[in-house]
Amino acid sequence: TLGHDIGDTLLVEAARRISSCVRASDTVARLGGDEFVILLASLEELDCVERIARTLVSTLVEPFLLANEQAYISASIGIALYPNDAQEIDDLLKHADQAMYSSKNAGRNRHSYFAPEMQQAAQLRRRMTNDLRGALEAQQMRVHYQPIVELATGSIHKAEALVRWQHPVRGLVSPADFIPLAEETGLINEIGDWVFRESARQVAHLRQIHHCNFQISVNKSPVQFRKDGGPTKAWFRYLQELGLTGQSMVIEITEGLLMNVEHNVTEKLLAFRDAGMQVSLDDFGTGYSSLSYLKKFDIDYLKIDKTFVSNLESDPDNLTLCESIIVMAHKLGLKVIAEGVETEAQRDLLAHAGCDYAQGFFFSGPVAATEFEEFLLAWSKVYQGSNNAINNCG
Ligand code: C2E
Ligand code: MG
Ligand code: MG
């Protein structure tokens, strides 16, 4: 995020720190990108490995001073031992890599030893990735919709589109399990494009039968912002073809994207705004929670992450936090959506705190399009007020 030169400086400094943790006779090499390999030859005892790994992590988490800014990195270490884990150099490297993956998955800044199960997990990932390549064409992708309820009126004229993968053998696969694979392979571009079009057709339909201002939000991965131009223009054209304005769709992004100065994120977000599309900041509170970014980027909705909502009743601090986020967002002109509302008490506390919208199992989980329509119909029968809204659109 600070530019290539500074990136190079960081690599040099990191390499220096790594070298300082090992003996002069050991080998430190950079494999590429941000991956280093350390060879500890002729080890007297295995304890040294443990000690060195710990020192490496604690050395690398110390801030780096780069261009007068403090930068922080994390380190994930994978350890494979010769000859126990592998006899061949290629296998040894592969196993160390699998162990590193496991460190990353466990939250980084740690080390993991290779275990045979890691090889199975890596195989599964490979197989899933292969299957994923054919999933769109084989029509195995589904979009489910979860209602977003306006707390003051009980009316529903928003929903979030959430993708699912109907795997022929594994059944319904959760996005948490396949989005990372889709991101690694770039397949997220095609999948995200498909989700957008599917949701656009759905919102056109819902605007006719349910609420003339219905809005559907789609999640957009940071990877989708990397492509220059990307499908953005094509999306706007598609909405026009369907006779829709940009106002019918909302783009959900996460804070990590905003912290990244590369890939012209600002311009790309502005393009959405120019097309009348709104932007939601997802999972707020789990990342940097940077207030300055909220104003800088013209965000329309802030989604409070479910981790805060789930402890609302038991933890007074969480209630205070939610209340403060709501007040702050309102002062900045943003509407607030609470995620993961599972109980009546949570809904009431949030409504009382002035939260604008709520989403969660208490109202409905994400469901297929037909089920979602049935849900809306049943809902508007109970909340007559929201039903009337159909006619109020003019
Ligand atoms: P997200 O965008 O934060 O979506 C909310 C997640 O919370 C969904 O998980 C939803 O099913 C779940 N959820 C909703 N209400 C409740 C509740 O009351 N309690 C609890 N515990 N959970 C609730 P899901 O569908 O598994 O999606 C997980 C994540 O995958 C999403 O998090 C989003 O980041 C990503 N994702 C989903 N669809 C897409 C997509 O089309 N494109 C991209 N790039 N990412 C997607
Ligand atoms: Mg979302
Ligand atoms: Mg979220």
Describe the model:
- The structure is a single chain.
- The two termini are 47 Å apart.
- This protein is of the alpha/beta class and 394 residues long.
- The mean pLDDT is 91.
- It has helices spanning 4-20, 47-61, 89-105, 116-135, 175-185, 188-209, 222-226, 232-241, 255-259, 265-274, 291-296, 306-310, 316-331, 344-352, 369-382, 384-388; strands at residues 27-32, 35-39, 64-66, 69-71, 76-79, 110-113, 141-150, 156-167, 171-173, 215-219, 249-253, 278-284, 301-304, 335-338, 357-358.
- Strand 14 (335-338), helix 14 and strand 15 form a beta-alpha-beta unit.
- The structure holds ligand C2E and magnesium ion (2 copies).
- One magnesium ion binds next to loops.
Overall geometry: globular
Which stretches are poorly predicted, pLDDT < 50 over at least 5 residues? none
Small-molecule binders here are:
ligand C2E, magnesium ion
Biggest sheet overview: 8 strands, mixed, barrel
Structural class: alpha/beta
- The number of distinct β-strands equals 15
Strand content: 15-25%
Terminal Cα separation, in Å? 47 Å
